[in-house]
Amino acid sequence: MKQLSSIIIKEKKITIQTELAQLPNPHIRTLAYIGGKILIKREQDIEPDLSQEKLQTLISVQHVTVENEIKLKLYSLRTKKKE
To answer: Which domain of life is it from (predicted)?
Structure first.
């Protein structure tokens, strides 16, 4: 179970990947990286017996949250450059 997306900025691609990980304990991990370098890492511990529907919802929410955080930072950087 995972979610993958990307954001393109001036020919550079930020890849965002969110997935269910089991070790050392069940958690949802989101990594955002560019050129193999990790920019953001978020992990959220979860209950081991959640339904597939609940897991997919948690994965999607965490993925979109990190995606929006990156977009907000990029927008902030662009508006600072214009000032």
So the answer is: Bacteria
pTM of the model: 0.87
CA distances from 66 to 25, 47, 51, 78 (A): 21, 21, 23, 19
Provide long-range contacts, Cβ within 8 A and 24+ apart, for 72-80.
74/7, 74/9
How far, in Å, CA of 23 to CA of 36, rounded? 22
Q: What's the number of domains the chain is made of?
A: 1
pLDDT of residue 80 exceeding 80, the answer is: no
Distance CA 57, CA 24 (A): 22
Please give the Cα distance from 81 to 37 (Å, whole number).
24
Q: What is the mean pLDDT of the chain?
A: 91
